[in-house]
Amino acid sequence: MSEAGRSILTAARDIIEESGPNSLRVSDVAERAGVAVGLLYHYFDDRDDLIDAVREAQFLARIEADIADLARKVGPNELDTTAVLKVIIDDFSDPRSRKRRDFRLDRMEALAAARYNPELTKRLVEAQKRLSASIRKTIENAKADGIVAPEVDAHALAFFLEVLPLGTGLATVYADMPSQEAWRELLLRMLASLIPDKPTPKKK
Prior knowledge:
The protein has two domains: 1-44, Homeodomain-like (Arc Repressor Mutant, subunit A); 47-192, Tetracycline Repressor, domain 2 (Orthogonal Bundle), CATH 1.10.357. It has helices at 3-19, 26-33, 37-43, 47-74, 81-92, 98-113, 118-144, 154-167, 180-192. The chain contains nine helices and no strands.
């Protein structure tokens, strides 16, 4: 996409983040992007197409951010249990984190937008595959390092770890949240069942 197209997308995203999609007007987007309305229609079919493009861009940005976080916080070298649990419990699954809340809502809004848009669904599927592959690779490394029991299915665990953070999006409307300590303790107990009883020798 050209610089003008990116400017339009950025302007639309800013308006949606400020006031929601219902407030988005094509003329306002064009004015904020500094382009003619006609040029906007060169890149996007209509208002709905523009909103879908914003949702896709947000989804992709959140996916790439999660992949980068995972790579930075866990690292490419030997893993340790503390680093892995911190990423899962304190970063990806913290229902009180405003940053994670925004990530979750952006992804859910993109999924909702894709419900009746097969082409958008295909693009989101490809983006999700990248995150899933990154998580599965980390799990396989954790198994090799003796952090995760060898009999644990990496695919199933990756799915669980991706679904868990999205589920905590209910925190937005959940009136009686458990304490942070109780939530952390529950996750630790659940994840402890995946750790081998005896350390597994690391593969050379």
